[in-house]
Amino acid sequence: MKVLLIKDVYKLGHAGDIKKVADGYGRNFLIPQGLAVLATPGAVKQVEQIRAQASVRRAQLNNEMSGLAEQVKRITLAFPGKAGETGKLYGSITGQMVADALSTRLGVTIDRRQVEMEPIRALGDHKARVRLTIDVIPEIKIVVHREGETVQFDEPVAEKVEAPAAEESAE
């Protein structure tokens, strides 16, 4: 099925693009959510208008989020966790935990789906990306340390956030 995107869709395309998608994805998600319409000849005539409106909207949103992105870049999150002698955590640090810590610190709601990272299962320094918009994706530093130890930061950071202890998970 060919659809015309009305809004930017992460990992699919920008507004105004015509994409070929699976029938179920288009019929059950994109069209009901108002993200796309069927690529009919009448809809294709409106491509330039949709692209122009979307680029203005995207530029405005990126401008608003750039200030938040600068704040996010300066943050270093520190998570205490229980770990074995090899440095492997008994639980893991998940995207939900990072999103909650960022939301608490910034006072802005960050969804777990905006945090791009694999679950962290080892002590040390890690990086995660926070997708604020389709174009603005700042990177944050995450330090995982043993419970009871003090955190040693390699470089001076503007802001440090001590996050709650990692939950133990039955794996």
TrEMBL record:
- Which segments constitute the Ribosomal protein L9 domain? 13-40
SUPFAM superfamilies given for it? L9 N-domain-like, Ribosomal protein L9 C-domain
Query: Which GO biological-process labels does this protein carry?
Result: translation
Q: Which Pfam families match?
A: Ribosomal_L9_C (PF03948), Ribosomal_L9_N (PF01281)
Q: Does the keyword rRNA-binding apply?
A: yes
Q: Which InterPro entries match?
A: Ribosomal_bL9, Ribosomal_bL9/RNase_H1_N, Ribosomal_bL9_bac/chp, Ribosomal_bL9_C, Ribosomal_bL9_C_sf, Ribosomal_bL9_N, Ribosomal_bL9_N_sf
Q: Output the Gene3D superfamilies linked to this UniProt entry.
A: Ribosomal protein L9, C-terminal domain (3.10.430.100), Ribosomal protein L9, N-terminal domain (3.40.5.10)
- The chain's coiled-coil residues are 44-78
Q: Which GO terms describe its cellular component?
A: ribonucleoprotein complex; ribosome
Q: Which GO terms describe its molecular function?
A: rRNA binding; structural constituent of ribosome
Which UniProt keywords are given for this protein, alphabetically ordered?
A: Coiled coil, Ribonucleoprotein, Ribosomal protein, RNA-binding, rRNA-binding
Superkingdom as given in the UniProt entry:
Bacteria
Identify the HAMAP family for this entry. Ribosomal_bL9 (MF_00503)
Q: Which family does it belong to?
A: Belongs to the bacterial ribosomal protein bL9 family.
Q: Which NCBIfam families is this protein grouped with?
A: L9
Name the job this protein performs.
Binds to the 23S rRNA.
> Protein name, please?
Large ribosomal subunit protein bL9
Q: Which organism is it from?
A: Levilinea saccharolytica
Q: What is the lineage of its organism?
A: Bacteria, Bacillati, Chloroflexota, Anaerolineae, Anaerolineales
